Amino acid sequence: MSQTADFHPELTAFTCIFCGYMAADTAGSLRLEYPANVKLVRLPCTGKTDIQYLLDAFDQGADGVYIVACSLGNCHHVRGNERGKARVEHAKKILENVGIEPERLEMFFVSGGMGATFAEIAREMTERISRLGPSPVKNGKKAPVEHTA
User: What is the Cα Rg of the chain in Å?
Assistant: First the structure.
């Protein structure tokens, strides 16, 4: 899809309550600007990121979805972010199979003090989704499913 002149992408960002959300809070404390189109959803850990949550976000109008987790090797729940990463990779395959660009879904790893990085991620995802255009499932328009024999 291509970008339209009046398209303003809606993004859903799932964050862990530790590093991911703390990075968002740090960005705010430092008065770092990032697009207001990002809606935050806090999870106890990104290991609790269920594939259904990701797909539901698209179904409920998100043009793009991303997850912000603790740095790999530094998860407060030991390996939760690794489980989350595996689920994101699986969800990307599902999106691709139903005709939705897997680039609409991404996962990032930060520490709590990385407010500038959090803001940059929000800008990067907004730009990426702006290039892709509106989600094919937005407003009830389902993506065409390719059938293979």
Answer: 15
pLDDT per residue as tens digits for the range 14-45? 999 999 999 999 999 999 999 999 999 999 88
CA dist 7 → 49, 80, 134 (Å): 28, 35, 7
At 49, is the secondary structure helix, strand, or coil? coil
The whole-angstrom separation of Cα 26 and Cα 47 is: 22
Q: Which domain holds residue 91?
A: 11-140
Specify the range with the lowest mean pLDDT, choosing from 23-27, 48-52, 72-76. 72-76
Q: What is the DSSP letter of 1?
A: -
Count of structural domains within the chain:
1
Q: Which of 118, 10, 139, 16 is nearest to 65 (CA)?
A: 10
